[in-house]
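Troubleshooting: if your tokenizer reports a length mismatch, compare your output against this known-good record of 127 residues.
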Amino acid sequence: MSRVLGGCRALMAAARAGAKGAAAPASTATKEAAASPAAAPAKSKRGLLKPVPLSTEMRKFVGVPEMSRTEAIKKIWEHIKDNKLQNPSNKREFFCDEKLKTIFGDKDKVGMLEIARLISPHFHKSN
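Known-good structure output:
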């Protein structure tokens, strides 16, 4: 049964309770805790999710002084999709307009896997 349900204890408990005909009180408590975000203590964001100060070029691109790396990449992809800059023959690369050239170092084309490396200098370490 664990292979079918992916080893998730809550799903396995619910499946067992359904097979016996009784509701599992532990699974309903788990659902209630997951449904109410106020009940969980707030965790500080770390790593890629932590907002950090941006360079002036990146600030002009995204419009805010601090942002996490993942949010910045989402903004870049929004810009690429909105302006149809993705190469139709090779979806893994896109063409840079003037706005993207400011953050990608005047490159005409950038590959999908290069984005993280090219935006890295635009994030300043915060203490």
